[in-house]
Amino acid sequence: MESERVQNIASTFEDTIPEAFIRSEHEQPAITTVHGIDLDVPVIDVSDPDEEKINRLIADASREWGMFQIVNHGIPSEVISKFHGVGRAFFELPQEEKELYAKPPGSKSIEGYGTFLQKEIEGKKGWVDHLFHRIWPPPAINYQEANEEYVKYLHGVVDKLFKSLSLGLGLEEHELREAVGGDELAYLLKINYYPPCPRPDLALGVVAHTDMCSITILVPNDIQGLQACRDGDWYCVRYIPDALVIHIGDQMEILSNGKYKSVFHRTTVTKDKTRMSWPVFLEPPPDLAVGPHPKLVNEKNPPKYKTKKYGDYCYCKLNKIPQ
Question: Which of 75, 87, 138, 195 could tie 10 with a disulfide, CB 3.0–4.6 Å?
């Protein structure tokens, strides 16, 4: 088990990386990144007293980009710092202690410590280890008050996002939240750990993808790595201290019948620094069927997506089975 962890692989290679981590030429970041230009995704100050303006900016960014950053969101810097610290502390534990949290082989739950998450067509691997656990409702992996404090503030951000996104589609402010589970909506935290990589020009941390969930709320750190695809090209996303990066996920694209776009993104790695990120995925219950919202379809706007249980959707996507 230990030999499979990227954190351990990183400590044993100095100038090369195993073949399984070398991406094909159409994926290698040195070749496919537009260098020297950071992507200026919309930055929205959600403390603006003009709520209609905030709603409009969020809806526009979700239509045109599928991604935006929010500032002055009400989560104190010290709460984010403590939240960061929890993740770092876990990955600094001795390997045998981390393995106590490993996902059991064959487990249907995504929660736990792991390395490889999804099937890749070419059998390649991402240069990343991760820890998944639900932070709301109260988690199965129950540790660290810092997470609880972060969640306490996060509820307000979640409510604001769903409200703005609903109103942006001409729905009542509560309708999108209800359509993804209402009070049963789960917050799934994934702590990504990207060790230094001897050949960052050849490897990716997480391969290009869209998120399966409804919305992702990401806390990055100050080491550049998040990239988004714009008009077929890959760009680095500008890092803003204490901003939250918001991704529109697949379920939101489906619910909006394609009006909001799920963002295609990936992560790169660096040669001499460890990079981390802390995305929280807002997930419907697995048995909840999600499809285009009934108020958004009619004869002129027929459904563009199937209605499907969220658990089934995830299984198909992770195993590369057509939806």
Answer: 195
Active site residue 84: no
Helices then strands, each counted (H, E), the chain: 9, 15
- Tell me how far apart the alpha carbons of residues 27 and 227 are, in angstroms, rounded to a whole number: 12
Among this protein's residues, is 211 annotated catalytic?
yes
Say how far apart CA 57 and CA 46 lie, in whole Å.
Answer: 10
Banded model confidence at residue 139, pLDDT cuts 50, 70, 90: low
User: In which element (H, E) is residue 158 found?
Assistant: helix 145-168
pLDDT classification of 1: cutoffs 50, 70, 90:
very low
Query: Is 129 known to be catalytic?
Result: no
Task: Say what the pTM is.
Answer: 0.93
190 in active site = yes
Name the active-site residue from 211, 247, 259, 317: 211
Burial-class residue 230 by CB neighbours within 10 Å (0-12, 13-18, 19+): middle
Catalytic residue among 209, 304, 308, 309: 209
Give me the catalytic one of 247, 259, 265, 293. 265
What domains lie within the chain, and their CATH numbers? 6-319 (2.60.120.330)
Averaged pLDDT for residues 166-174: 98
Instruction: Identify which of 175, 197, 287 has the alpha carbon closest to the alpha carbon of residue 7.
Output: 197
| Position 142 pLDDT exceeds 80 | no
Helical H segments across 180-278, by residue range: 250-255
pLDDT in tens, 56-86: 999 999 999 999 999 999 999 999 999 888 8
